[in-house]
Amino acid sequence: MTTETPSDPRPSLAALSAPLVERLVADAPMLRLGVERVGGACVIDAGIGHSGGLEAGRRIAELCMGGLGRVALGPVPGPPSWPFGVTVHSAQPVLACLGSQYAGWSLSHGSGKGAFFALGSGPGRALARQEALFDELDYRDTADAAAFIMEATALPPAELVAHIAAACGIAADRLTLVLTPTQSLAGATQVVARVLEVALHKLHALGFPLDRVVDGIGMAPLPPPGGKFLTAMGRTNDAILYGGTVHLHVAGPDGKAEDLAHRLPSSASRDHGRPFAEVFAAAKGDFYAIDPMLFSPARVTVTAIDSGRSFHGGTLAPDLVERSFRDVR
């Protein structure tokens, strides 16, 4: 279950994440998770019919990073009313964040009222390779088991389970799907734990060479779960857009590191300055009408490791975080 060869020494996301899946299932009662079979696959409910919780969300976030990230809960900078949050670190941030954690695979089945839709993230993406991104990363994983995380509010249909397993080249009973509604405690935690991934995704969109990214760490305040999807989506986004901090260590010229520090923060976007729920409403619910450059941390530090110089960009907006975390839509 490993891709480690002399020509590609990078670790297998599937191999690193397999023990995390096993422990999640074994500890399901303690973590208030549900475990059942759908179409042969193991489906872990972290907020639909079972309550889940913060620890479940923390563990799911580490699974989502393919075992290449560490996620901790504790004090973080932010509004005094919300002193706790998530800190995430990876020694291989490109593979952990873009190769695993990024929700890059669009999964759907059916149409109309009964349709199922979710974005798939997690280490199984490197087996399915349904995204052109993996050609750019030049990474391919091989394994007989796969795990995905979905921000879903319903169980996936058996037909979709079969499709995912086939794309991964595995038997359905070797597939694990973790369902984390954004409104749940576990869902909010694993979304906010994407603060580093959001920075890597925008860095990639800005055209910064991925092979120059050496290390990364990020943190963001943890919002209260939202009763409705729009509230939850707004709060989890604002935790990163206005409360998130990321520190990247990169190789290469100082000028490139300085330029990245200026262009990476969410404040570089035309849509910056309002809670995300308001931005989303103004766009009439159309994500594609929102400036994609908005999706990034509030504050960044970029250290050029060749010279040792660091460059800073953006600033925290605790007033907007406070407003978002108290607003109910």
TrEMBL record:
Keyword list, A-Z: Cytoplasm, Hydrolase, One-carbon metabolism, Plasmid
Pfam families: MCH
CDD domains given in the database record: MCH (cd00545)
InterPro entries the UniProt entry points to: METHMP_CycHdrlase
Residues spanning the signal sequence: none
Pathway annotation from the record: One-carbon metabolism; formaldehyde degradation; formate from formaldehyde (H(4)MPT route): step 3/5
Catalytic class of the enzyme: hydrolase
Subcellular location(s) of the protein: Cytoplasm
Record-linked SUPFAM superfamilies: Methenyltetrahydromethanopterin cyclohydrolase
Entry's Gene Ontology BP terms: formaldehyde catabolic process; one-carbon metabolic process
Protein's name according to its UniProt entry: Methenyltetrahydromethanopterin cyclohydrolase
Gene source species: Azospirillum brasilense
Encoding gene per record: mch
